[in-house]
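Propose amino acids for all 89 sites.
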């Protein structure tokens, strides 16, 4: 991942990105087990992060195979956000 972030031109943001992903995953677990509101925030945040990752991949002209995972994860997290939204009273 160090080399990939250098290739993206985003090396200074590697640690922040990793921490946000771990927080997002933790938020998803908390959302599933206890608080849909936290799950909603976490899934929306991860969806936004994956959208930005997809845009970076497009900007550096990666091929479709390299762009597709971030696009798919974006939609999975968006679906989770909608599910958490429907659970929120």
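Proposal:
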């Amino acid at each position: 991942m160090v080399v990939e972030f250098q290739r993206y031109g985003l090396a200074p943001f590697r640690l922040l990105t990793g921490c946000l992903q771990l927080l997002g995953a933790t938020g998803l677990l908390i959302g599933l087990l206890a608080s849909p509101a936290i799950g909603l925030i976490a899934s929306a945040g991860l969806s936004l992060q994956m959208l930005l990752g997809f845009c970076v991949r497009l900007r550096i002209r990666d091929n479709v195979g390299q762009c597709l995972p971030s696009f798919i994860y974006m939609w999975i997290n968006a679906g989770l956000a909608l599910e958490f939204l429907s659970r929120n009273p």
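DSSP finds four helices and no strands in the chain. The CA atoms of residues 12 and 24 lie 20 Å apart.
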